[in-house]
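S.,

As promised, the magnesium ion run. Input:
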Amino acid sequence: MAESKTKFQIEVKRAPEPGRSFRAALFDFDGTLSLIRSGWQDVMTPYFYEELAKVADPAKESKEEIMRVVRDFIDQITGKQTIYQCMRLADEIGARGGRPLEPLAYKKEYLRRLQIHTKDRIDRLTSGAAAPDEYVVPGARRFLQILRDAGVRLYLASGTDEVDVKREAELLQLTSYFDGGIYGAQDDYKRFSKAMVIEQIIETNRLDGAELVGFGDGYVEIENVRAIGGYAVGMATLEAKPGGIDEWKRARLLQAGADAIAPDYGDPEALFEFIHPCK
Ligand SMILES: [Mg+2]
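Predicted complex:
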C-alpha cells in the first residue's frame, strides 16, 4: 500500500478516493481537541498500578509486569468511558485473588486525583488568565470553522463524563462549532458509546458510512469509524509539546486501523483539501 508524507506532515495509509466527500465529522475531545486533561494517563496508570500491586504475588509478577498489564489495558480501552477502565481494574484485582471495590469507587478516586492535576488549568481558563487556545490542539479552531463553512455537520463524542466535556468545551469556546451535538459518558454507562453516537449520526443525516470522517487519538474511535466504512484520521498529538508526533500514539492508532496520521491541525487548509479530494 502506498505511503507518503506530504509537506503538511500527514502520514497517509489510504488516501480518500477522488470524488469522495464527507458530510459529517466526528471528533474525540481529550487529546484530539482539548489539552485540559493532558497527562491523565500519568494519573490513572500509577493509581491502578498501586491498586493491582497490593494484591499481586511478587513471586509470580514483577513490578514491571504489573505496570505493563496496567498500561496495556488502559490503552486498549482509551476512548471508551472511564468506567470501563475501572471495571477492567476490578477484574484484574479479582483475577489475582483480591476483593475489588465497585468500579465506580475506582472512578471516583481517579477523578479526585485527576482534578488535582487539572485544577490549575481550569482555574486559569475560568478567570481569563489563560486564553482558550492555550489548551486547544494547534489549528483545531480554524479547522472546525473551515468544516462548518463547507457545510459539514460536526459532532463531538468523548468517554469523559458528559457534564465535564460540555463544561470544558465551553471553557475552550468550542461549543458553537458542534451543530450535531456534544456527547459524553452517562451515569448509566450502557446509555452511551461512541458506536451509538455514530449510529445516530448515520441515521439522522441519512448518511452512507463513507460520508463520515472521524478524528481521534484513541483506539476506540478509530475502530468504530472504520467499522462503518468511515475515514479515520488518527491524531498523534504530542500533548506535552504540540507540533510533534507522539510515536506511542502513532503506533497504536495505526494498529487500530487509522487511514492517516496527523500531529495536529497546524495547516488546517491543507488538511481540509486532503479530506476533500474532489475540490
Ligand atoms: Mg482522546
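The radius of gyration is 19 Å. The domain at 4-35+136-275 is CATH 3.40.50.1000 (Rossmann fold).

- D.
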